[in-house]
Amino acid sequence: MKKISCEFLLLSALFVFPVMSTYAESPEEKGLRLTVAENTFNKGWQDFKANLTLTLRNKQGEENIFTMRMLTKEVEADGDKSIIVFDSPGDIRGTALLSHTHTLSADDQWLYLSSIKRIKRISSNNKSGPFLGSEFAYEDLTSPETEKYTYRWLREEVVDGRTLDVIEQFPSYKYSGYTRLVKWLDQDYKQPVKVEFYDRKDRHLKTLASTEFVEYLDKYWYPSMMFMTNHQTGKNTQLEWQNYQFKNGFTDNDFNRNALKRLR
Amino acid sequence: MLNREEQWASWVLNNRIIVIVISVVMTMLAAYGASRLEFSNNHRVYFGEDNPQLIALEKMENVYTKNDNVTFVFAVGDGDIFNEKVLLALRDITERAWQMPYSSRVDSITNYQHSKAVDNDLEIRSLVPNEGSLNKENIDLIKNIALKEPLLINKLLSPNGRVTAINIAILLPRIDEASELPEVVAFSQNLLADIKKEYPFMDAYLTGGVMMDNAFVEATKKDIDTLIPLSFAVMLIMLSLLVGGIMGTLATLLVIAFSIAGAMGLGGYIGFPLTPPSVAAPIIILAIAIANCVHILTTFKQRFSEMKNDKESDEGDKKKSNKYQALHYSLSSNLRPVTIASLTTVIGFLSMNFSDVPPFQHLGNLVAMGVLLSLVMSVSFLPALLSLLPASRRAPVQLPFLSMNTLSECVIKHHNRFFWGVGFIAVILVASISRNELNDVFVHYFDEKSEFRQDTDFVLDNLTGFYNIEYSMESGESGGVYSPEFLQQVDGFSLWLRQQPEVLHVNTVTDTIKRLNKNMFNDDEAMYRLPDDRNVIAQYILLYEMSLPYGLDLNNQINVNKSSVRLLVTIKTLSTGAVLDFEDRAQQWLTDNTPQVSSSVGTGTVMMFSYIGQRNIISMLVGTTAALVLISLVLMAAFKSWSLGVVSLLPNLIPAAMGFGLWGLLVGEVGLALSTASAMTLGIVVDDTVHFLTKYHRARKEMNASVEDAIRYAYKTVGQALVTTTVVLVSGFLVLASSGFELNSGMGLLTAIVITIALLVDLLFLPAVLIKCKRV
Known about the structure:
Chain A has 4 helices and 13 strands.
């Protein structure tokens, strides 16, 4: 509830600000306003499913490919709920990860192990940890919630004819692996096209580049390709999104422990 | 009609101002390159780009992660670390260690990810909770878990619970080496100082690969700060004692300074890094440059002091002045032997390019350049300068205890005894070469006075080892690491490793999988074993990996496509030979027991240092042989005599062989440091022979002297200078022997021994040989 009122205030501020255009906006306020606008714009899709291909590469050029299906349901006033079902490699086929993400507290996660047909709850301190050993951390992949960070608008940039707002964001989550992120927010897509991640020592750790944006539901622009480079280890990970399908009519019952067992 | 030597002498003395100006300008131009010299702070500089062990290690690092590290070690005086005060201190330090520049991972007993079964679920969390205080019950639990955990014991925790470590993995980008490592070192030392202040109840120590790299830098700096001034001081004393006269000493010092500055400057242009071996170059150049000057100066002084009758009245006509004549004589008579001696020295040092150890190549090239410069300077700049400076007529100091006349008569008279006597000693010593064992302990490159060595020794005595060997085991298919058969073999190797007396710790993913299996069965100890279903194993690891926080993943143990695992083995500090023996046994076991698995050779810094000694000895044997052939050809050409060239082989070869034999009797251990000594000493040792044989040859050919008379002539003309230069060289190398860095001290000591033997062989044995084979 607290969150809604907060967002409401911010939203009203959005409408009020243009009126008081003479009022000098601080970089922090502008960063917040733009992010709120981004997150508000990107709400309302209800649910989707998509196919994912995750390709891990090390410095030696070795590769490992995961394919999976993802089902996600939008949740008002909290993080989204999602299930990821693994299709390959074969030894983890049928294994599925259920996540109830939360904005500030640790996420709830359960893993269904198809080999022993049991569900195990996953420890809670892993938000900063790598996803499937890739260069993506869990916290890089969960839904963007305004309260996860504080913001500072840095500058506007034009790259390849597209206008981008460069915004610095600072994690509120105590055990985050980062001191800050710098995102390049596309003014039309209302999506970041590039994000730089700075580690706990404020050293440049990774860069995420999102490309091949496609418009869905005549409104939402999603990247089909996300490429994460780790500058410290020389490893990289590529995440491809395919076959987006929206408004499948998922309910909360599709995202609980029982649902995990039903999946194929 | 003047011969070429005399023409040169005349030209130099007549154009002395031009000679001096050109020398100074050229030296300054060359010396400017010294501004580009940089300290190398990476121990990998000791390995060439094509070193097979380095290539294997780099491949391992590309597949898994790099293993540079900083290790903090803590010890409590009484009791153990399991009380709230110490554990909370360790938790705090672990947290702060994440701020270490370029750190990629921090491992300690407090953030060790302990897994256990809770209500049918798997709970994975830090052994000491991230927040809050600890009560007695918590502490007892932590103690019980930690002291039983194979991943911790003998690695991060001593079995008695008194000593513990925090290990910080460092990923240096190696883009700006000059600044990156010092950043890490400065942070570590500041943190250490803060810890000592804030937590006085613990003793704190600092070690690890990064600190070792830093120790290399400190050793280099220390040698620059102490040995170079010391060697200058020693040489100054030597010069004033042996040569006498302020002006001669001053001129010689200038020649030396110019040679060193020029060589180091050229090294800077080429891009040689500063390492302890390359910093030995100025000290060696110093000693050799003096030798050249001493020959010119001694002859000049002898001649000048003999011209006492003449008066200085005709100073206006410089061509006729005594000084001019004495200099002219000294220069023209020494030009040839000094040139030949320098060339052979240069060849000897250039043969160090055969070495597998780049810093020794750099040393060889730096000294070679320095010797060439000192040759040019001593036959141009030195006489030109001397002709401008006032000279005293005092004769050079005679060594009171040694009369060359007496010695030559004695050797000629008893040539049989000398031949057989020295020959017998030589045979005994040469036979003792085999007593040398290849033994290099690279932690011991740094002497006990260095902080790195003290801290590391404490860790070695109380906690764990410094030598890490990595093995990669390849299943041959993507995802193959989940195969139960493959893991059984990995487990078998891990168990075998743990049974070896050298092994202190084995980090293996099979321990983690066994523990997970136990957790999945409600912590039933009986289930502490590998599951026998591939999918089960894959999904356990998936679950485990999903539960790990930032920086504590399995990427350092399993490769990206899950086809191979890495075992990290910590062994005791052993000699090179013992390490190679261990590796042989490991490879044999793998061949016998895991034929389907393709396993890597052991890699790591310790393996590189273990192989390099042997490799370097072999390559230096080739180098020394090449140098010997070249030098012999130079001598044959110089003397225009086959037989003299062949005879010269004997006194050139024997000293190094005898030196190594003596080393075998006295020390018995050789390593990287000494493997280059034979090539290095060869070039210097030859000089004595060259000077002696040049005079002998001249007496035989130009004066038609008998063998005995030619020997007497050689003794008279160069005996004194040979003794003098040997004393100078030996004291120079003894300065090097006082280095705190073993590669330098060992090299210095052995070289000093060989040079001393060489003088004895030339004065006592060579004449006897010449008499024995009358024909030459």
